[in-house]
Amino acid sequence: MSVPIAVCGSVLTTDGVRHAHAVIVAGDRIVEICPVAELSSGLMRREFAGATIIPGLIDTHVHSDDWQAPLFLAHGVTSVRDTGCALEEILERRTRWNAPLARAPRLCCCGPLIDGPGVPFSWTPMAEIVHTPGAARECVDRLVAAGVDQIKLYASLDRACFFAALDQAQRHGRFTVAHLQNHADAREAIEAGLDEIEHLSGFAEALWPERRAAGVHWLDLWPDLAPERVAPLVQLVVERGTWLTLTRVVWHAIGRNDQPSQQCLPHQPFVPPDVARWWHEQYPRGMPAARRHVWVRALAGLQIMSSLLIERGARIVAGSDTPFVQVMPGFSLHDELDQLVACGMTPAEALAASTSRAAQALGWGHQVGTIAPGFLADLVVVRGDPLADIRAARAVQAVMRGGVWLDPVELLAEAAHQARQPVRHGARRIGEWY
Ligand SMILES: [Zn+2]
After folding, report:
1. 3-class DSSP assignment, residue 57
2. 120 pLDDT tier (thresholds 50, 70, 90)
3. 45 Cα: distance to centroid of ligand 1 (angstroms)
4. H-type alpha helices, 106-180
5. CA 374 to ligand 1 centroid distance, Å
6. CA of 287 to the centre of ligand 1 (A)
7. Residue 233 host element (H or E)
8. What pTM did the predictor assign?
9. Which CATH topology does 1-55+371-402 take?
10. For the segment 239-255, what is each residue's pLDDT rounded down to a tens digit?
11. Are 234 and 309 in contact (CB under 8 A)?
12. Superfamily holding 56-366
């Protein structure tokens, strides 16, 4: 076991920030939190004046790949949940990324999306396509037997297959995550016991079923948030404790693709050429004016819905949907935290949504996401006070993953070097699997 070390600064604990405190780490664990004044003189120390020590951050919605690892860590993201990837690939990556000394975030995985044969939301081969309820149940059995952590149900499942797969996952006691679309609206899915909804999918359909049935596109439904419509659904979400990953950064990235603010983003030096090409093909700039207006109204509606859910105390966690268009590892989780604050969370609540609360959604609430004795020593040292201004969480000074220090400057250099490599001709294109 390595020599114990005291990491000194202002420490974010379950009781709030304790100034002039130390997190004592031995091996890969936190063993004690105590005032700096009480540290024994022989203990090795690393002092961070003016900094706050927060738990390692968690991104609850990513589609992982190896190029992303240094970017996640450089931004203080020490755990991620993969919400859709080919089975063999993700199991192999989980083994590597969860190794004690890995230079990668810890990985919780859903395995492949369980999806139906419809278009356009079948992302093969990161999906397993099922055509019958029996096949949906068999697919869940097979993924559980293979060892996935959670089950992800996707947009093109038909109604019978969706409820069969949900029931089968529940029989196995597996946490279920869904992108709702054709099969069930949010109310139906929540009442059937679905654990988590991504992207606020199925909400518009639950609020305006008659307009949905008349063929109105879900984006066009958002501007009409009458309180008497919205309140019962918000109440249901809160009462049932349904988890929500909003991925507000995704809606902003699509809806604002043409705005000047999107032309020069800080993540650009780190975008691999394959990824940039895929983004350009999927979402070329030049959205027609009528479409832009729809997006402006939809973004406003999604923001109002998000703020109502936050106000009522819904269990919201922070996820980015990396590497969706203009959504990048690490950078975009911090953008999501800004967005959650813009929707009414306090900075402390936003941090919880990406630490202790996110850890619970991953089933890891006893291991990560909290600075307390017995937890894994995943720590992020940030300059300033993120509880006063959430943007301070971006100013990552040092990262510790499982008791091992990582240097953000080195990690970013590694990521930038990778991004300068030429397009891998003949390699799997991201658009074929994202
Ligand atoms: Zn996704």
Report:
1. strand
2. low
3. 41
4. 133-146, 159-171
5. 32
6. 22
7. helix 227-240
8. 0.96
9. Urease, subunit C; domain 1 (2.30.40)
10. 999 999 999 999 988 88
11. yes
12. Metal-dependent hydrolases (3.20.20.140)
